[in-house]
Structures are given as C-alpha cells and as structure tokens.
Amino acid sequence: METKHDQILKYIQDLEIGSKISVRNTAKVLGVSEGTAYRAIKDAENQGFVSTVERVGTIRIEKKERENIEKLSFESVVKIVDGQVIGGTSGLSRTLNHFVIGAMELDAMKRYIGADDLMICGNRESVHRYALEEGAAVLVTGGFTVSSSVKQLADTLGLPVISTSYDTFTVATKINRAIYDQMIKKEIVHVSDILIPFSETQFVYDEDSTAVWRKLNHETKHSRFPVVNKEMKVVGIVAMHDVINHLDRESIHEVMTPDPMVVTPSTTVAAAAHRMIWEGIECLPVVDKSHYLLGMITRSDVLRALQMIQQQPQMGETIEDLIAASLEEHPDGPGNTYQFSVTPQMTDYLGSLSYGMMTSMLVHVARRLLNQRRKGDLVVENLSFYFFKPVQIEQNVLVRADILEMTRRNGKLDFELFVDEQLCAKALLTAQFIDRF
C-alpha cells in the first residue's frame, strides 16, 4: 500500500514541467498535513525533479542526470548573475550548451546561435526574438527587460529569458568561472549522491516505546536509528547500548542520545567520512536546514564512495593538482627528500610563499610518504610550524621528512625545509589513518 509520502511524490512527478508547487496547495489537493507535504516536496527536490528558484518559487523540473553535472543549467545561471527570470520558467532545468555574446550585427551573429545556447546581449529585441526561435535562451544585461511579445514567445517555447544588472563582460567572466568550478566539482561526491533516501530510512518517534526499537532491530538487523519528533525533525539517535537495560514500556525519549551529529546533502563525502572515523559512528542522519530528516548514510557506503572517487579523473586543475605537479623527489638528497619551485600561484600579496601553500605542500608530502608504507587515506590531526622564514618567488625549496612514529592508526612526521642550504622552516605533523573495507 502506498504511503502518503509516496502519493505526494507521484502527484509531483505527474505535474507538467514548469508547474509551480506550494506546500499549502499540495496539502489541500491530497488531503494531507502541510508538514507531510513539505517533507515530500523536499524529498522531491533532493531527488532532482523539483527546484526552488529565488523570486520564482518551487517548480517542477526535468530530473537532472548525473552525467551532466559538469555543465550548467539555466537555473544555475540565474544564481550566478543574480538575475531575474522574466519568461520561459519551464526551461530553467535545461542544460547550457554554449554562451554567445551578442556584440555584432544580427546577420553576422546567426551562424553562432544554436539550440540550448545562451545569448548574452543588451536591449536588442530582434536578437532576443531570433535567439528564442533558434532554441537559445536569452540573458539581458544592463538591467534591461524585454517586450511582452518576447516574454510570451519565451513562455511558449519553454526557453528562459533572464535579466541581470551586470554588464556583458562581467556576466561572461562569471559564467566562465562557474563552468571551470563545475569541472573541478565534477568528481567531488556529496552526501546527496549516496544517501539512503527518506522513503527507505527506518526511524522511530521520540514518543515510541523501546519495544518499537526492538521490533525494527529484529526486522532490519540494524542497531542504530534516528529519532524524530512529530514534525519529523531529528532530535536524537537510539542504539542498542541505549535500550539494552531498559523495559519495553519506557519511551525512546528517555533513553536516546539527544542532539546527535548530523550532515546535510551538501556535505562532502570526505568530510562525512572524517567525522564518522573520528567519532566512531557507523551511520549519520541527513537533514535539511530546518533539521527535517531526509535520509541516512552509513560508514560502509561512505568509504566505498571514497574508493570510487580516487579512481576518477580530475577535469579541472585545483591547488592540489598544482602541488602534486610541482613536487618531485630530490635525486641527490638523503631519503625522504623532496623539492619544489615557488611559482607565482603559490605566493601571497608580498611575493613570498604563502603559509597556506606551505601547509598544503607538507600535507601532500606526508600523504605521499606514508602511503608508501601503508595504503589508504589519512586525516591530518595537527600541523605545527615552530620555525618559519619567508621564501621568495622562484626559489627552490628542499623538504626533508623524517617519520618519528608510525602505528596502525597514526603517523607522526618531522619536517625541515631548506633554501640554498639554509634552514627556512621546521614543522611537526600528526595524522590518523582511515581504515578501508
């Protein structure tokens, strides 16, 4: 039998693309409480077929496929340029192909415009109309708007028309930067990618008795469950050690662990893994900003995701890539000696090697060195510089690392950094290993 939650999800999925969705109207149509409707709409948003757009509201969109994550949707463009949607709302979920700057005559511009492109221009109605007829969205710069006939055409074709107060150059720069950032984020996995959804999550209410926990434990073989109140907000965690010595008639509220550690869908899997390892937690509730329960993640799923991430190629160059490319083993130095040259990207505003880059460099050396002895991920617990001198741009730096201690769970390293055979920094690093399944 379908639950009310499933019925609401089916109702939302059956809506036309671009339809506006409100909690109050959904609750009224289906005869459910507004709290139940709100949770289902949030679940639909998490699944990717509902989106909330500023100044537009919550709308039904086409479900975003995972393979398009490195591209931008028109909805994303609205946020990037602080824009306002003035037509074609139903097409916001479509993916941007290319963007074209309308800085030439229309006839010369025609060969550059194609389907799902974004035409960026000022108040040029002929360009707006032609772009829409060719299947492209329109971004109007300078705070201008469009005529009512262009708005009507955009609504008919389902192609967004967006207005922004920024100039054309600023808009192009912002979109270029966003595309590059998306390339970097492509392989960064978030909790939303691996969570067990709400519809499959087992939970108990704080007013339930411990007998409910025992029943769920028997049915699922799991020992930890999130505890929610009547509003479906997470208020605690209940595990076997909480109920083992208590009678079945006692309430979950009396025995649970209150204010549990939680994560949000936007938390990275790496951050969730570190949290779970440090705290010795097997599972974490996933909540939204209002603390409503959205699902669960388990330690085994998190660590499997980390293993998968390491096998994926990185599309955009990050600071970590810059460090990895510049760091080399020193051929003539003693064991565990590395070298790198200070590039302009590594410096602060004074032209010296920045503290942050030096820290990242030593962490990278530690990972490389410790992984030669023990495969797996590690979490840096502490890094302390107890001697530091400025290092100038284009100087060559030698890094000598000495493993002071290494156990099954921890590693401790001592670093000395040299420029022209002169000591310029000393540091001590401690790290904890993450066990792999």
Q: What is the CATH superfamily of the largest domain?
A: CBS-domain
**Shape summary:** flat
What structural category characterises the helix and strand content? alpha+beta
Helix content percent band: 25-40%
User: How would a crystallographer describe the biggest sheet?
Assistant: 6 strands, antiparallel
Protein name: Transcriptional regulator
Domain CBS: 195-255, 256-314
Pfam families: CBS (PF00571), DRTGG (PF07085)
InterPro entries: CBS_dom, CBS_dom_sf, Diverse_CBS-Domain, DRTGG, HotDog_dom_sf, Ser_kin/Pase_Hpr-like_N_sf, WH-like_DNA-bd_sf
Keywords:
21 strands; CBS-domain; 16 helices; 437 residues; Arc Repressor Mutant, subunit A; flat; five-stranded mixed sheet; alpha+beta; single chain; Udp-n-acetylmuramoylalanyl-d-glutamate--2,6- Diaminopimelate Ligase, Chain: A, domain 1; six-stranded antiparallel sheet
Structure overview:
The chain is 35% helix and 24% strand. With 437 residues, it is an alpha+beta fold. A six-stranded antiparallel beta sheet has the order 16-17-19-20-21-18. The protein has a five-stranded mixed beta sheet with strand order 4-8-7-6-5, sandwiched between helices. Helix 2 crosses helix 3 and helix 13 (269-279) packs across helix 14. It is flat, with a radius of gyration of 27 Å. 30% of the residues are buried. It comes from Sporolactobacillus spathodeae. This is Transcriptional regulator. Pfam families: CBS (PF00571), DRTGG (PF07085).
